[in-house]
Amino acid sequence: MKFSVATADITPIGPVWLAGFGDRTHKSEGVHDPVHMKIVLLQANKTLLIVTLDAVGADRSFIVGVKDALEQAFGLAHEDVLINFSHTHASVKLTGSDYAQRDTLYSMADGVDFNRTAGALPEDEAYYAFVRDTLVRLTADGLANLTDGELLLGRGTSRFSVSRRKPTAAGIKWAPYPEGEYDDELIVLKLVGKNGELRALLYNYACHPTSMGPDNYLVSGDFAGATSRMLEENYPGTTALFLQGCCAELKPVKSAADGAFKNCSYAEMEEAGADLARDVVRVAEENAFAPVRCSFRTILVDPLLYTEQTEASFYERLADSPDTGEYRRKSAVRTLRKIKDGTVKDRAPLYISVWHLDEETRLIALEGEIATAYSLLLKRMFPGGRTIVLGYTNGNYYYVPTRQMIAEGGYEADANYCFGSFRGTFVPEVEDIVVGQIVKADLRLRMQEPIA
After folding, report:
1. Does 361 lie in the same domain as 387?
2. What is the mean pLDDT of residues 291-306?
């Protein structure tokens, strides 16, 4: 197996509207820590590319545009590229130049605009071109500098996260719920050179990078950026890449205090990053690692998830209620307008990638903000400890709840109309669609002829 690793600083120049929190009132005021693009190329029977970006996410305009550029430049098929977002809420959300596939709600130039329609966004498009061209350059350099090595997998756990869905007699409350079940697995992948030198650490964990809140106006990778920086300081010459898991309802335990969540200071955010870095080092130093034998198979599917046909009267009541927050009120008004003009959405596409890295090791990567229960379910379905599950991959702009979460309600299930003006909540059967598509994709890979 051959591999290469590369990093680039993609910190936006000048003030930008940070994405992730709807109640920010002005552009960024500086940089706490740079945000990065990092890549890993893996080459065996075919070439795979993993890209990590310190950004909230991206729409299809960005994802398709970038993957088309990679395919044109290097012949990399869309299914052979994974773009994973850390989902830090102290960075931007990315779009591309294809208006038809653009999510029009947010712009790094002027924030959220509930009345924006598809059209030119010069600042966003310039940043897209910069990120795209940076990725093409890193990939070209990486392909020219592949080196022999080995990929190793180790597993541990971390109690870094806590659920934010607390069941109460009045329904789901946004509050710390330590008793909630979540995927606490911390998976570490090592890339080592032919002489055994550590070249890269890829660590997969699930947690919203929202230790800081909407009162933060400095660009930052949040705890994930701090963790990677600390790992690279601990292992000189090594690149650390954070692979975001299924963390739709998970927040850093560092941000939980007195039965509620707080906005961490910069010092507390750095402490959180150090906590996770220590857990990664513990796994890297103390746990057993097994080789990944690197015979690659990949598939990318794009099923549709369907929503309920919620009546317009529901959104009229939301818009008129004095108890509705301003962001939700504007979202309800926007949804009403789209119902009336016929542009409201009642289905959403969902990219699902399945990679077989060898006969035992699989990587399942899903678009969107995926509930942690999906990760737990998939690891039970594919036992053996060699299944890695990612969310926030190849785009994201809505939550994907489970059947149980839809029945319980709460933000992750009920806020669909805030993300792309969907007609209603997802139907309970979305869980069956997601899991069924993964099982079918995995079976299609299994039915291929063994690789010699």
Report:
1. yes
2. 97
